[in-house]
Amino acid sequence: MELIFFYLIALVAIGSGFLVIRCQSPVNSALGLVNTFFCLAIFYVMLHAPFMAAIQIMVYAGAIMVLILFVIMLLNLGTEARKRYTHGVVWSAIASLLVLFNVMYFIKRGRVTGAEGDITSFTVESVGHTELIGKALFTEFLLPFEIASILLLVAIVGAVVLAKKEV
Amino acid sequence: MITVYHYMTVAAILFAMGTYGVLTRRNAIVIFMCIELMLNSVNLTFISLSSHLQNMDGQVFVLFVMAVAAAEAGVGLALIIAFYRNRDSIDVDNINLMKL
């Protein structure tokens, strides 16, 4: 039952990804991308990471996609963008199939190993996923967290400077 | 039974589709959305491996990937707007000069 559900969601995710790369209108591509983000959020719930699913919907499907849709509406791309919307299809298909073949080769032939922790799905349900993430973020990963805040500050200043009338 | 390899296969397919979109599309905003698709497939790999290894580090890394994606969205869209002001188009085939 769970496997059937997984295949259904995977099919929807890949179909929406296909819409993203094939739709002529950028708005349709953006809606397909939102659909893909929701499917990935369902995957995160199935992987016992509910906080990540919430962040995925709020940050990606909420903030970033609204920003992208806003820019699409702001630029108001008319019919001239629709005449010819792809280039180099054959070589790009070969390159992306090569990427897919490489990754699938490693997935099929390799075995997943690594430093195993002690956070099982039972721990996530009893302690709470947000608390576990918060503890890891504010103790072990404190320096990267601060650096990320500086990165966001730089991005804000850069966006304001770049989008001004006279650069 | 769903294994970690199922999730990684889905992520690999999404990543390859994002690569195809980046290489073929001419609209800069759609290229940008394909980059977001690739970032999300990497996030799915991180979370599936983190869940498989019962280790929290991968999910914390996904938070940082999301922060970088948000910064990239702000700066990238500002660049697209600046380019549209100068050329009245966001076709990447028109981006062939560094100066205005």
What overall geometry of chain A do the principal axes of the alpha carbons give? globular
Number of domains of chain A: 2
Total of domains of chain B: 1
Strand content of chain B: under 5%
**In terms of per-residue confidence, which ranges of chain A show pLDDT below 50 for 5 or more consecutive residues?**
none
Number of strands of chain B: 0
For this structure, the quaternary state is: heterodimer
Rg over alpha carbons of chain B: 17 Å
CATH fold name of the largest domain in chain A: Four Helix Bundle (Hemerythrin (Met), subunit A)
Mean pLDDT across all amino acids of chain A: 89
Terminal residue distance of chain A? 57 Å
Shape designation of chain B: elongated
The main sheet of chain B comes to:
none
The tally of strands of chain A reads: 0
The topology string of helices and strands of chain B comes to: HHH
- Strand percentage of chain A: under 5%
List the helices and strands and how they pair.
The complex is a heterodimer of chains A (167) and B (100).
Chain A lengths: L1 H21 L3 H21 L3 H26 L13 H21 L11 H7 L1 H12 L1 H21 L5
Helix pairs in contact in A: 1-2, 2-3
Chain B lengths: L3 H21 L3 H26 L3 H31 L13
Q: What would you note in describing this structure?
A:
The complex is a heterodimer of chains A (167) and B (100). Helix content of chain A is 77%, strand content 0%. With 167 residues, chain A is mainly alpha-helical. Chain A is globular. In chain A, 22% of the residues are buried. The model of chain A has no long low-confidence stretch (mean pLDDT 89). Chain B contains 3 helices and no strands. In chain B, helix 1 (4-24) runs antiparallel to helix 2 (28-53) and helix 2 runs antiparallel to helix 3. Chain B starts with a helix and ends in a 13-residue tail after the last helix. The radius of gyration of chain B is 17 Å and the shape is elongated. By secondary structure, chain B is mainly alpha-helical. The chains are: A mainly alpha (167), B mainly alpha (100). Chains A and B meet through helix 1, helix 2, helix 3, helix 4 and helix 6 of A and helix 1, helix 2 and helix 3 of B.
